[in-house]
Each structure stands twice: as C-alpha cells, then as structure tokens.
Amino acid sequence: MSKDTKGQGDATRLAHTGRGGTRHHGVVNPPVYHVSTVTFPSLKALKDATEGPQSDRAVTYGRRGTPTTFALQDAIAALEGSGSTFLVPSGLSAITLSLLAVLNPGDHLLMVDCAYAPARHFCDTVLRSLAIETTYYDPAVGADIDKLFRPTTRAVFLEAPGSVTFEMQEVSEIAVAARVHRIATLMDNTWATPVYFKPLAHGVDISIQSITKYVGGHADVMMGSVTASEPWLSKLRHWIHHLGLCVGSDDANLALRGLRTLETRLARHQATGIKLAEWLGDRREVSRALHPALVNHPGHSTWKRDFTGASGLFGVLLKPCSDEALAAFIDGLELFGIGYSWGGFESLIAPHDPSPIRSAVPWRANGRLIRIHAGLEDSDDLIADLSAGLARLASA
Ligand SMILES: *Cc1c(COP(=O)(O)O)cnc(C)c1O
C-alpha cells in the first residue's frame, strides 16, 4: 500500500475522503444531489458564485458539478496523490478530452501501439481530421522515445500494461524524456488504478482512468476521470466547459460506493488473477499466460519495481485451435460471462485479435488470444470451470 505525505495509506483515504465533512447531519455518505437549476437569493450572490475565486466548487448549474460529484472528484484526487480531478461520461471521453486539451492542429502525437483500440480510432479519425498526426510506438521503448520526437511532437500517450496484450512500459524514463522537450505525457491507468500505480508520482502529466472498470466495480456505471496539475488543469477545464461534459449525481454516488471497497476488492482480483494465470500457463492447451506479475512475463521486473500490485485482468495465448474448439471452450463456461468491459465483481472472458490494429509492432502470435477478467468468485470454482472448458476444447 502506498502512503501519502501524511503517512496515510490508500485504504484509509478510500474510507475517509469525499465524505462531505461534518455537513449533512453527520450521515456517512454525501447525499445524492439531483441538480440542473440552482437559484440565488440576489444578483450579488449569483455573481459571487459564478465569477468568484471558488467558482470551480460553487454549485451554480448542474452541468458545472454538484456536491455529490465534487465529493467523488476529491476522493479520486486524494487517491491519485496530487492534482485535481475532472469527471467525464466515460473512460473513452477521458482519453479524447485529454488529447484535445494538449494538442492543436499541426501537432504530432506519439501513441503507444498497445493503446485501447477506441483511443486509436479517435487518433485515426478525429485527430487526423484536425490535422494532428499520430505515430504509434513500440511499448518496449524507454528513454529512446526521444528518437521519435519531432519539432511538432506535443504529447506522448502511455498505457501500461496494454489492456489486451499486457506489455509493460518504462513510464518514468518516457516521462523524463518528454519533460525535457516540454512534451505532455498522458497515461491510461485503468488496469492498475491509482491504488497499484500512481502515474503523477512517476512524472506523468495527465492520469486517466475508466471509472467504469474497477472504481465502479459493479458493472453498472459508465464514467471516466482525468487528474492533472497546472498548466494542464486549465486546458482540461477549458475543453470540459466548452464541450459541456458532465456526469450525473446518481452515477457519482455509485462510483463513490465502489471506491470505498476498491482496495479490498483489488486484493482479491489480484490473488485470483495470478492464480488463474499460473494455472492456465501450465496447461498443455496454452502457449503462455500474459500477466505482468508472472516471472516469465517480459515486463515482470518493470512491473515489480514500479507497481504495488496487479488487477484481475490478463491474457492467455492458446495453442492454435479451430473456431469450433474455441467456442466449445468458451460457450460452455458457467461462471465466465462472454463480454467486454471488466473491473466488476464477476468473471469475464472474450477472444481478442490485436493483429488488424497493431502497426509499430505487428502482432504475430501463433494461436488465439483470449482475455480473462478474474472476478470475486471462489478461485477453485473458476479453475474447475476453466478445466472443464479446456477439456471440451481438447476433445472438440
Ligand atoms: C474500458 C477502457 C477504456 C474506456 O472506458 P469506458 O468507460 O468504457 O469508455 C479505456 N481504457 C481502457 C484500458 C479500458 O479498458
């Protein structure tokens, strides 16, 4: 568990931040404020609220934030360790907003090749139409990232581990190299959450999370967060306000509820994920498990040095098999849902094929890649389910 400057650990902060202090009659959780219109007793009060120094935290109109969304912002900022947090409607919008905030027409972006696929699509469509050029780079690059810098390079985007292929990155080396050239660094930290990795403490400028995943934790809310300090904060605020991005208080309340148990749940996701990955890695139907906490993973030493834990999402490279054998394996599983997203209490499984989108480092693995999210179920039950599935695969 990482400690903040006051010596408190993340689990303590998760229990005590974003509670709204002693207001609200002492109730433990901040109330859910449903807000669009806010009325003021006088013109002066209206002006003070909307234009005063505290206007970021004034309740002036629903789109500008509510006491419930402010509580969640505070709790996430405390967990990130520094900076201030903005909330947006999805993890993808957290990525797209951040890229818009740091790039202008004519600029160049370095995007990690293992980035979340819809983030790539944004670069290849919207950013391209804005005359912003993207180069995809090998996740294994470290300080050598500076060889890819052009005079127009304004941002480097990181995601570690890649959430489908699980490559690690030398985050600090990249952040240091970028800072020398005043290039912004942005990191999608959805896999680790700030409980297991704090991007800002490793020199990254903008820390991005899909709250939909582990913070929400119950497969019932969509949201994203962006955390940064100045000068990036002002740029982010500009774009959020002008694009009109906001989140509802009911969703913020669900995210706050999820946040309280984040550290506790992650410990279980971690233990089960490692157990399943090790078990699968030893099976003859499997060529290897892709999990940075396993010693045979190429990024293991980086993960061990920089991260304080692993979440429950990992990959498994099966030996080549037919479509029918794959379907026999996956369709018959009883405890693993077939679906996208992850970070909820339930286990999930889905095949992925990175080969059509990878460009810097072509994906040449021989065999099917499947991605597993280890939920909070009993790990022995999950292993029994997978074991029966692999038996179906082998006999199909
Ligand atoms: C799911 C995901 C996102 C996008 O989050 P949404 O809330 O679904 O928009 C971004 N990055 C990663 C790594 C993800 O897994």
Task: Summarize this entry quickly.
This protein is α/β, with parallel strands linked by helices and 396 residues long.
Textual characterization of the structure:
The chain is an alpha/beta fold and 396 residues long. The protein folds into two domains: 10-31 and 65-260, Type I PLP-dependent aspartate aminotransferase-like (Major domain) (Aspartate Aminotransferase, domain 2); 263-395, Aspartate Aminotransferase, domain 1. The chain contains 13 helices and twelve strands. The strands form two sheets. The chain has a seven-stranded mixed β-sheet, with helices on both faces. It has a five-stranded mixed β-sheet with strand order 8-9-12-11-10, covered by helices on one side. The longest helix is centred in the C-terminal third of the chain and has 20 residues, at 262-281. The chain binds pyridoxal-5'-phosphate (PLP).
Give the secondary structure arrangement, pairings included:
Layout lengths: L9 H7 L26 H9 L15 H14 L3 E5 L2 H12 L5 E5 L4 H13 L3 E5 L15 E7 L11 H10 L3 E5 L4 H4 L9 E5 L13 E5 L3 H12 L5 H12 L1 H20 L4 E5 L9 H7 L6 E6 L4 H9 L5 E2 L9 E5 L16 E5 L5 H17 L1
Parallel strand pairs: 2-3, 2-4, 4-5, 5-6, 10-11
Antiparallel strand pairs: 1-7, 6-7, 8-9, 9-12, 11-12
Helix pairs in contact: 3-9, 4-5, 4-8, 10-13, 12-13
Bound molecules: pyridoxal-5'-phosphate.
Pyridoxal-5'-phosphate binds next to α4.
